Amino acid sequence: MNSTVRLASVFVELADTLVERFDIVDFVQVLAERSVELLGADAAGLMLADERGGLRLMASTLERMRHLETFELQIDEGPCRDCFETGVAVANVRLADARERWPRFTEAALAAGFGSTHALPMRLRGRVIGALNLFTDADQRMSEEDLQVGQAMADVATIGLLQERSLQEQTVLSEQLQYALHSRVQVELAKGMLSERAGVSLEEAFRRMRLHARGRGLPLTQVAGQVIDGTLVPDGPAAS
Predict the structure, then answer these.
(1) CA distance 84 to 130
(2) Model-level pTM greater than 0.85?
(3) 14-41, pLDDT tens digit by residue?
(4) DSSP per-residue letters across 181-223
(5) ∠37-23-74 over CA atoms, to 5°?
(6) CB neighbourhood size of 240 (10 A)
(7) Distance between CA 55 and CA 15 in Å, rounded?
(8) For residue 132, which phi and psi values (nearest 5 degrees)?
(9) Contact status, residue 151 vs residue 173, Cβ threshold 8 Å
(10) What are the two backbone dihedrals, phi and then psi, of residue 37, each rounded to the nearest 5 degrees?
């Protein structure tokens, strides 16, 4: 398979998040592994922001890379951190020259056997959700073409991840809305049944149900269910 065809297949692979059982851990690991394969890096790691905006290590291709990235998060210093905070790529940094920029991280990276580093933002428009970090053992530069390909891979992956998050949020919202609608129907039904049984207005029936629920620390929907199935006697709410 030639390089152009392989690159195209990787982009298809990264774009395909609409699978029945999407696995985010496997997805970001694939991105890291394909980055090493296509960009001539020796190791890659990927960090994503959690719901509080803090970075979390999600994938790494080598164990020494994982240890280094974990250390980077602990000391809050390094290329991935800078890239995430600025949204700008950190490219072609010779680690031997980076001691002043990242003193503790640089020593750890050199000790791990790395010679140069690059970090590409995981971004869409103005939103940055993480960073892709690349390392080479030798002190070597990455070509502008490779950097562009790497950024394009990160961009496609970001779109896929945000799309998945959006789908999850929409699913949760839809489920919450459906539950709310079902609950409201249940309450209205119970209100009508209690009104008829107790010979009171709908407003009074609803008031009694709310008083009963609040007085016993129960959800209103639970009280409504008890009214509907007859386990709560018609004048039970009035007694509270």
Answers:
(1) 6
(2) no
(3) 666 545 556 677 778 888 888 898 888 9
(4) HHHHHHHHHHHHHHHHHHT--HHHHHHHHHHHHHHHT--HHHH
(5) 70
(6) 13
(7) 23
(8) -105, 120
(9) no
(10) -65, -45
